[in-house]
Amino acid sequence: MYEYFIGTLFFGIFWAFLFAFRRDLRWPMIWTAAAYILFSGILVSVWHIARQFVYLREPIVPSYWYPPTFFDLSRFTGFGGIEDLLWLFFIAGISTAIYEFLYRGTIIHKRGHRFFVLALIFSFASFFIFEYFFAVNLVYSICVAHLVGALVLWIQRRDLIKHSLFGASAFLIVYFFAFLLVLVVYPSFISDFYNLNTTSSILFLGIPLEEFLYAFSFGLFWGPLYEYVHGEVSRLKGSRTIRGRRR
């Protein structure tokens, strides 16, 4: 009954560690989490409306997985419930802070900056385009949306490519270990709650390949998104300021 909720708390451990030790990154962590939840909420709402007019794939619950949630909200919404909001909050915060934490970097705030949103628009649109034209599980559409958003982000802010790649790799490692903790406590978590028949069915140390694809693509896009949107820059210890592109 509480497997998903407890599993979410394992991700919360990593989030709490970063939040406690990097005060300067607390606002970016919270901002990105709020942005991701809002982005996901709008995407889900539009998806539900669009399904009334065009054929789209089945919702991620239960097509990809079907964990028990409080008040059975995930089955009602087709996407998520209270546990999902917590999980989205935690992973967004982790992906935002992990790069600066590992490289002892900080985000340099600039006045009069210009906001960048094109990557978000392309990511949003690509999700529906891919979902409409390709008969695949919804999780792949989400990964494609992340990848498209990251590509646009790289084009507009080449200085963030390193942040995106290294941050995504670091986030993938954290995601992997957090997931392993879940499997240590609940060894049958995958077999009980995942619909492997609709995906590749490839497992690595018991974890579906799609989870790795999701984590890495998520880190590529959402890891540097705070700096991207705000037109801000990062400074790593022992290096000069990395300047963002201005247009």
Structure summarized in a few sentences:
The chain is mainly alpha-helical and 247 residues long. The protein has helices at 3-21, 26-50, 60-63, 73-77, 82-102, 118-133, 138-156, 161-185, 189-193, 209-222, 225-230; strands spanning 106-108, 203-204, 207-208, 233-235. A two-stranded antiparallel sheet has the order 1-4. It has a two-stranded antiparallel sheet with strand order 2-3.
Derived from helix and strand composition plus strand pairing, the structural class reads mainly alpha
How many β-strands, per DSSP? 4
Kindly provide the radius of gyration, computed on alpha-carbon positions and rounded to a whole number of angstroms. 18 Å
Strand order of the largest sheet: 1-4
Terminal CA distance? 51 Å
How much of the polypeptide forms β-strand, as a percent range? Answer: under 5%
SSE order, as H and E?
Answer: HHHHHEHHHHEEHHE
Helix run count: 11
Oligomer: single chain
Mean pLDDT: 88
Tell me, what's the shape? globular
Topology record:
Layout: H1 3-21, H2 26-50, H3 60-63, H4 73-77, H5 82-102, E1 106-108, H6 118-133, H7 138-156, H8 161-185, H9 189-193, E2 203-204, E3 207-208, H10 209-222, H11 225-230, E4 233-235
Antiparallel strand pairs: 1-4, 2-3
